[in-house]
Write a structure and sequence with these properties.
With 223 residues, the protein is an alpha+beta fold. The protein has one domain (3-78, 121-201): NADH Oxidase (3-Layer(aba) Sandwich), CATH 3.40.109. The chain is built from eight helices and four strands. The protein has helices spanning 3-9, 23-33, 52-68, 88-103, 110-118, 140-159, 174-180, 214-217, and strands at 46-51, 128-135, 163-167, 187-196. The protein has a four-stranded antiparallel β-sheet, sandwiched between helices. α1 (3-9) crosses α6 and α2 (23-33) packs across α6 (140-159). The two termini are 33 Å apart.
Amino acid sequence: MNLEQAIQQRISTRAYLEDPISEEELREWLEEAQRAPSGGNLQPWRVIAVAGDAKQAVIELAQKRLAENPRGEPTDRPIYPKDLWEPHEARRRKVGEMMYEKLEIPREDRPARLEWFARNYRFFEAPVGVFFVIDERMGHGQWAHTGMFMQTLALLAEARGWGTCMQECWGILRPSLKEHLGLGETEMVYCGMSLGYPDRSHPVNQLRSERAPVDEFAEFRGF
């Protein structure tokens, strides 16, 4: 598989097979991704991978906290800006509707939609969950570099026949995750990731979100 194929093939995988991924395979994957861009070579990311009982403990923590408050815990770094504007809000809503259409869950069946959303906090049954940790003192540049590291991991996963799903949803549980994972005083969970072999027969994995045409987001000057 070449790079272009990996980019075109990558999706947010939301259904997985039970096939495990070994610690040795994870180590090789992470080592290769270390060549991702990093301004000043800060390498501001830290990774915590969970599987087996460790993954189940995180799932149970999430279930407990979300049962107490479905909106999660207070955060000064929300997933989306408040009062998201167009065309971004329309894009967000549309991809959600496209997903539920694939799953054949109608808008009026709110319990079924909530149940599906809750699968986020079970890593969509993937065998491995990955958390990306960053120091709160880092600036916006280092957050961007961490995102580049995550994208590199996602593309390397495609080359291995794995699937991934970036999960910023874990951000609503940052205080509890900080304690549970034993993070340092100034550390925080930025994002989670589900990782495993994709169930390619599952309808949710047939979803291909739309992307804006080049002329909608790019200008060409001096050509």
